[in-house]
Design brief:
By secondary structure, this protein is α+β, with helices and mostly antiparallel strands. 45% of the residues lie in helices and 21% in strands.
């Protein structure tokens, strides 16, 4: 049975990679589908998968924005979220911006 809003989740794949997804179903149901290869392009070749983090959002738009944000994060930032080290998140974001940010040109 669908739940109100949506949940964002992170899976640890058998190859050690992380997969971030969004579902309007129960998270456990969606994880089971990943492990069965149902609607799971990326994870089908990386099974079995294990749920390592999830959060439910009342608003679908908030869940979509969060999933997109997480998909753009570095591995280190995802691991900080998974471990609950919320204090590390801003520093990890700043570090990434310094390395890969747009070049500044002087006139």
């Amino acid at each position: 049975m669908p739940v109100e809003g949506a949940s964002v989740y992170i899976l640890l794949c058998a190859d050690g990679s992380y997969y971030a997804g969004l579902t309007r179903k129960e998270v456990e149901t969606r994880v089971s589908e990943h492990n069965l290869g149902i609607n799971a392009d990326y994870t089908t070749r990386r099974r079995p998968v294990k749920l390592v983090w999830s959060e439910h959002f009342e608003l679908l738009t908030e869940a979509i924005a969060t999933e997109r944000r997480i998909k753009g994060w570095s591995r280190a930032k995802k691991e900080a979220l998974i471990s609950g080290d919320y204090d590390a998140l801003p520093a990890l974001a700043a570090r990434r911006n310094k390395k890969g940010g747009p070049k500044q040109f002087s006139s």
